[in-house]
Design goal:
The complex is a heterodimer of chains A (312) and B (432).
Chain A: H1 16-30, E1 47-52, H2 58-69, E2 73-78, H3 90-99, E3 104-109, H4 114-121, E4 125-131, H5 137-151, E5 158-162, H6 169-180, E6 184-188, E7 204-205, H7 209-214, E8 218-221, H8 237-244, H9 248-251, E9 259-261, H10 274-278, H11 284-302
Helix pairs in contact in A: 1-11, 2-11, 3-4, 5-6, 5-11
Chain B: E1 2-12, E2 16-25, E3 28-34, E4 48-51, E5 56-59, E6 61-66, H1 79-88, E7 91-96, H2 107-120, E8 124-129, H3 143-149, E9 153-154, H4 164-177, E10 180-183, E11 195-196, H5 199-204, E12 208-209, H6 212-228, E13 232-234, H7 240-251, E14 256-260, H8 262-266, H9 288-299, E15 305-306, H10 315-318, H11 335-344, H12 350-364, E16 379-389, E17 408-418, E18 421-425
Parallel strand pairs in B: 1-4, 1-5, 6-7, 7-8, 8-9, 9-10, 10-13, 11-12, 13-14, 14-15
Antiparallel strand pairs in B: 1-2, 2-3, 5-16, 16-17, 17-18
Helix pairs in contact in B: 2-3, 4-6, 6-7, 7-9
Classes of the chains: A alpha/beta (312), B alpha/beta (432).
The structure holds zinc ion (ZN).
Amino acid sequence: MQWTKKDVLDIESLSVDEIEFIFETAFGLKEISERPIKKVPTLRGQTIVLLFLEPSTRTRVSFDIAAKRLSADSIAIAAASSSIVKGETLIDTAKNLQAMKPDILVVRHSSAGAPHLLARNLDISVVNAGDGMHAHPTQALLDMMTVKENKGRIDGLKVSIIGDIAHSRVARSNIAGFTKMGARVSVAGPPTMMPAGIEQLGAYVAPDMDAAVSEADVIILLRIQKERQRRFLFPTEREYAASYGLNAARLRRIKPDALILHPGPINRGVEIAPEAADGPHSVILDQVTNGVALRMALFYLLAGGVRDANVD
Amino acid sequence: MQMWIKGGRVLDPEEFDGPADILVEDGRIARVQPAGQGNEADFPPDAEVIDARDLLVVPGLVDMHVHLRQPGYEYKETIETGTRAAAAGGFTAVCCMPNTSPVNDSESVTRFILQEAGRLGYARVYPVGAVSVGLEGRQLAEFGDLKAAGAVGVSDDGQPVSDAQLMRRALEYARGIGICVISHCEEMALAGGAMNEGAVSTRLGLAGIPNAAESIMVMRDIALSELTSTPVHIAHVSTRQSVEAIRAAKAASIAVTAETAPHYFTLTHEAVNAYDTHAKMNPPLRTEADRQAVIAGLADGTIDAVATDHAPHGVLDKELEFDQAANGIIGLETALSLGLRLVEAGHLSLRQLVSAMSKNPARIIKKTCGLVPGLPADITLIDLSARYTYHAADGYSKARNTPFDGWQFKGRARYTIVGGQKVFDSQNHANL
Ligand SMILES: [Zn+2]
């Protein structure tokens, strides 16, 4: 298969074949991170800009490590040091960066659609590292990769996504991704966190938490953002943990081979009990490891994917 | 100075519909002479003749909701470019909203607007003053001074009058002064999103604005209109629930009137598509069910007027992240053609559309409007069969922010006449 996409903006715009091709590439590159010298020269001379206009540590570090393992030069620009705060528009900032001839721009932005705006205005590749409540395609890809690695397949699985669906880009991208790859996706959480028309994205609304938890092959918990309490979405963390958290009691009712995923960072004791986060069902750290391989795969494919000979 | 509008179909929805000639003298309509009555010799031989054969001659269109942006935001629009756009769209009069800089909450700003509009002469401009000083929602603006200076209404448009007591007092005080109150209905605690709340906002990950954010305020203002026995005019109705509330209020003889904008009867939230900021406005584009309800509201008279909410913006205001981009689209040069689509589709009669775009809004702001001897000769001549492609870049507005760029239309203004002066000719754009 030949990679033809200029940008990776959301899951919806990727085909099943492209997603499989990304997994295949990522599984192949994963081994590099196990080597004593974790670096190949594949993308030597390529420049990758990480434009992070919303605070993030783990996603930025993951992209950064992925770039460096392939010998690309990566430059991270954070919100505080960017000229956006000085009143320059996003398009102007990005066009200035493009004028310095990077090959790939990775962008994290608090506004939904910001990466699409950039992709329309730039010639270089744009990778969406999370835009507002809209999409987080690399997270969904690494989640699916982790499930495929552990289950051998995605097709036919039952996936439950639990938590603040309304405000979660991870939920949207995972609904799109798992559904596209043949899984049945249910969502659960308090009605205050359930967005209008979620069924039209292909998700089923679980009748209750017990159904969401006990029937699932894959349970994806979303981080509860404590500041949302102030927007009247839930009364207290204690009550959230009791009503919608994967607590010890619910953990006993999950399928013996169920996987527990979480995009992190986790709130122990709120959406996820420590027994669930650290227990045998948890693949939370596998997600983080796969995240590097997955992002290496995207860089590799976007940079041309024709340098196979150089992977030594 | 005489003008002979010859051979057209004259349509004043409340007076006359048929082939007739109109004689204009000294800026006023002197005579409407049905075809076959009298003879050509009755018309002065040296009058300027406007050949109106195959044209529809209607009372000058009135747009009661326009943002002209001057003073303060001249990079978006000026009174000159805005009124030229109005003339090109067939409008002979526009009401301009007070959210300028400085805000039009004073006699002096109102007088400035009127002076500038009068000097230019492309369209009559009827200023709308602020309900509250600085649009801040704290203190009543001086309605008496505003009215004396020439304002026809008051509104805090752009934002709601959130304080129900202020709204109550504004209605009562306006009744004493004799000025119309126009309400931008939005419950701010429920608003704060970037587009309509629904399947599209969920897919795009944009914060949504539910229908209730509008209809709650419509219902409040209906209650306050009843309480104060004062008319209230609801601006830019976009939801099914608002239409239903207004219909019920009218049935109960509460003095509420309403307008909607062409985009609410033409587009739905699907137009936001891939974060197209030319489909971003407040209130937002809604669902197909809302669009149908708005059309039904126009058809049964629940909604009195079509008003554009013409909201010009610079490229820099729109070429932004969707949630950062400014609200609003330009509308003066497309409204008539979009309205005619409703007639073409059989939703409205021509007569209803003409009423909604001329006589009804004029009545709400207490201005005369009609093809009757003695009235000012504000007349729009429409070519119902003209087919054209609208290009925003060729328009008179300074702004290009429209979702209708490149649309193909049938029917447009052929001539626009204000006070007996031709201010627009679609086949001769030079130096009018
Ligand atoms: Zn408004």
